[in-house]
Task: structure prediction
Amino acid sequence: MARPRRFSLTVSLISLVEFLSLTSASMSQQLCADGGGGGPAAGVRAGYWSPSSSRYSPVSSIDASLFTHLYYSSVSIDEASYAVAPPPADEASLLAAFSSTVKSGSPSAKTMLSIGTDEYRMDVSNAAFSRMASDRSLRGVFINSSVELARANGFDGLDLSWIFPATQMDMENLGVLLAEWRAKITEESTTNSLSEPLLLTATLYFSNHLFDMPDDNLDYPIDDISSNLNWANILTFGFHGGSNVTTVDAPLYDATSHFSVSYGVISWLDAGVPPCKLVMGIPLFGRSWFLRNKAKNGIGSPTAAAGTKQRKSNQTGIIAYAEVEEYMDSASTVVTYDSQSVAEYFYNGDLWVSFDSAQVVQKKLEFAARSQLLGYFLWTVGFDDSNSTISKQATESWHQYGQGGFGTMHAGGSNQYVAFNSSSVSSGSWYSKILSYLLSSVLLLVTLSR
Ligand SMILES: *[C@@H]1O[C@H](CO)[C@@H](O)[C@H](O)[C@H]1NC(C)=O
Ligand SMILES: *[C@@H]1O[C@H](CO)[C@@H](O)[C@H](O)[C@H]1NC(C)=O
Ligand SMILES: *[C@@H]1O[C@H](CO)[C@@H](O)[C@H](O)[C@H]1NC(C)=O
Ligand SMILES: *[C@@H]1O[C@H](CO)[C@@H](O)[C@H](O)[C@H]1NC(C)=O
Ligand SMILES: *[C@@H]1O[C@H](CO)[C@@H](O)[C@H](O)[C@H]1NC(C)=O
Result:
């Protein structure tokens, strides 16, 4: 008689497990479906385009079929009215034409208007975001103007790129801003039957905790981010701008510090953001230095200065992928792929550059797909070469590794920066909470049935 009983117990355990895992999957799908169409089945393959790149990479030259979402990056906040600032006169026509140009290249591509910190006036610009977020009526002004500007120019969504909130009060206010913004978008969509609701995303720090800030207790508001954004784009690059020794600038792994892509991704997952809300950044720029001594050209070698301004990036120490490629064609360039950190660098005479090659991009997207992330974004698409080499590599890798499908099981990760593999997945908070809940239910049932 024991046999049938055990059999039925097994069956009920299996259905319980199935029920619970279906419930948790549908809960996360529900979260991910918030805002409608926010989590496209094939994931997000996004790119940021900067109006300053229009002189060498006009919107019409982008192969939009390689992207699901293209961001106009960016307009800023008006420091007097706290509304979204209209673009400078020489960029107005670029903003107006962006959506229609992208869609004529690829009708299914969505366009996003990014509203961000003005990089040339960071302090005043961030102060304006901080002030706006702290005041209910100023938030209303900002939010209303953002929706108006997006609709007037045919955008499908909005992005907040506040780089970065600097106090705990900023973080709290950011949460309130996102909730009110989402409410406005929902309300607007009920009065606008012609269009889908606007998408809402944010461009955030690489990890959920901000390092090297005056306040060392600064974390993003996880629940407000998870429940109000269609997804978050995390800036998993640009880690070592100020370094006085050569160093890889966006390594996937770093066993000696938390400044790595894997650390950032896992920190967000551990903090509780579902992976289907997370989109990982890939830099299309490299970091350049002049070596102090040409003969010392490995990682960790002393540098004399940041590399000279290049035509495309127009910033010292930054070099576009297309410009990296020009150096790669030279016989005097020596290239090294570092498999431990998953990064590439080259030197040529006294120039030393760390960059993301096609191989690095492939490895990073394998990591992103294995972590069940929603997708990736490229920063910025104008830095790719004229064959869109990296943009194509990214799309191909995503299709290759993303084939397992999305939305059924969401892996978390342990907050250890050394390595990320399938055996460390189960110690992650989000996934492991469900798992340990399942196990304890099973144990409880077994105990009860004795
Ligand atoms: C924003 O727009 C709503 C209507 O959608 C209006 O009720 C509200 O007063 C506006 N807020 C501000 C600050 O203009
Ligand atoms: C780099 O800077 C650090 C402190 O910021 C200093 O300790 C170190 O000596 C410097 N290294 C070189 C090669 O200048
Ligand atoms: C390059 O950057 C400088 C500021 O460093 C700016 O004044 C100039 O307009 C930029 N040039 C182009 C072509 O974007
Ligand atoms: C683009 O592709 C063509 C054909 O494969 C090749 O001849 C050319 O060198 C490539 N250009 C760049 C910038 O990679
Ligand atoms: C996976 O991670 C575990 C513990 O985190 C480690 O013991 C194991 O060697 C790793 N496996 C690989 C293939 O990296």
Summary: The two ends are 14 Å apart (CA to CA). Residues 42-284+356-403 form a domain with the TIM Barrel fold (CATH 3.20.20.80). The chain is about 40% helix and 15% strand. Residues 419, 421, 423-424 surround 2-acetamido-2-deoxy-beta-D-glucopyranose (ligand 5) (CB under 6 Å).
